[in-house]
Write a structure and sequence with these properties.
There is one protein chain. The chain is 55% helix and 21% strand. By secondary structure, the protein is α+β, with helices and mostly antiparallel strands. It has a single domain (2-109), classed as Vaccinia Virus protein VP39 (Rossmann fold), CATH 3.40.50.150. It has a three-stranded antiparallel sheet. Helix 1 (14-23) packs antiparallel against helix 5 (79-97). The chain is elongated. It starts with a strand and ends with a strand.
């Protein structure tokens, strides 16, 4: 199995975890690490890759495109939804830049 996920960086303070909860996607915080979850589900040969830099590049491209095409996108989805989506992307970028939010790729095998 292979998947990517957006997750909180390790070792965050309670205040930083709250910021991540507000800046990341829903359910970004977990009580157990993904390697721990995979192991408890019987997976082995668990491998991790940090793809945060690629995620940041993609978020920045989306943000830039949204700003560039703001009039058309806002007309299509409505002003409030557009403003919220743009704010969410901006918050995610800030959290990545602060080292609070990461994009990870995991692979594992289940015998």
């Amino acid at each position: 199995m292979m998947f990517t996920t957006i997750e909180a960086a390790e070792g965050l303070s309670p205040a930083e975890r709250l910021l991540v909860a507000r800046s990341g996607p829903s359910a970004v915080l977990t009580r157990t690490s993904y390697p721990g979850l995979l192991a408890s589900a019987g997976f082995s040969d668990i491998r991790y890759s940090d793809i945060t830099a690629e995620y940041r590049t993609t978020q920045q491209a989306w943000t830039d495109a949204m700003r560039r095409e703001a009039r058309a996108i806002s007309a299509a989805m409505g002003e409030p939804a557009f403003e919220q989506r743009l704010a969410d992307r901006t918050d995610a970028l800030a959290a990545v830049d602060a080292g609070l939010l990461e994009r990870s790729q995991y692979s594992a095998v289940r015998p």
